[in-house]
């Protein structure tokens, strides 16, 4: 009887310690989710809607905007460009860290060797830095570290952000072949985030078209 009692206590202890760990873990994950989701919703609803907030600038302005940066920003092509259908190049966003509200300066280009479209499989891994630790953002409600079997179907129903059209970036399938350059531009972010978010965000994307590699890219940006 006593033995049974002890093992019951022991079991209760193990369960409570375990569930506490699980709870702490999911609190971090949920916070990482809330922060990144708010950030992306903010860009979608407040920043990318106004094409008048975009102006094209010269290289000198880009250079000046990059001074005093913290070097957190990075854009990595994680695959062999020779094997990729789409090869991004010289992707740059400044200032680093990005300030909201503030003025964002960006440029880049992409070489698309041949047309691609459905089925476009996109596997995303999204991370948010919390207290210096990368926390993976869970896939909830179609946002976060999700895998989309066909991004084309998803994109078919969305309106291309006006800012995308202004800078000449396509956002719908099928994507044509070509060597696109996004000229350096500045974007004024006038609105304020509903809640302050700071720390870095990392997005890793594995993209395939019919099983063929389109691109593997990873972007890290920091927020003041
Ligand atoms: C694509 O454009 C860039 C910038 O103009 C140029 O450096 C590069 O050589 C071009 N690539 C091809 C394959 O045309």
From TrEMBL:
<dbReference type="Pfam" id="PF02221">
    <property type="entry name" value="E1_DerP2_DerF2"/>
</dbReference>
<feature type="domain" description="MD-2-related lipid-recognition">
    <location>
        <begin position="75"/>
        <end position="221"/>
    </location>
</feature>
<dbReference type="InterPro" id="IPR028996">
    <property type="entry name" value="GM2-AP"/>
</dbReference>
<dbReference type="InterPro" id="IPR036846">
    <property type="entry name" value="GM2-AP_sf"/>
</dbReference>
<dbReference type="InterPro" id="IPR003172">
    <property type="entry name" value="ML_dom"/>
</dbReference>
<feature type="signal peptide">
    <location>
        <begin position="1"/>
        <end position="19"/>
    </location>
</feature>
<keyword id="KW-0732">Signal</keyword>
<protein>
    <submittedName>
        <fullName>Ganglioside GM2 activator</fullName>
    </submittedName>
</protein>
